[in-house]
Specification:
Oligomer: single chain
Distance between the termini: 10 Å
Strand content: 25-35%
Helix content: 25-40%
Shape: globular
Largest sheet: 5 strands, mixed
Number of domains: 1
Length: about 120
Amino acid sequence: MNEILNRLSRVVIGRAIEVHKELGPGLLESAYEECLAHEFKMVALRFERQKPIALTYKTVSLECGYRIDFLIEDRLVVEIKSVDALLPIFDAQILTYMRLADKPLGLLMNFNAQTLRDGLRRFIR
């Protein structure tokens, strides 16, 4: 994994930890998403929110409503959750989003964890 992606993921994780420290667990995913967007703006990260991604099936591009919570610097997929526990389906979801968007790195963050580190998973394609 190249150093630029590692640095980028450290910045994103740092901003997410800041949000989690400030708000704690127990809020809706949309609240964490809004606060993360604010944090990303504060550190001048280029990002897209609720980025649509198409599914290609037998050479046909289908708009199926898949959306990446955050695409950071056109390289890093960030999927946020606020759930009791991260289930294997969430791993499959982020890996699929990474594949469909052709991105090398993904972060899955569960803000409903006691500490964000307990709710954080990093994925490399």
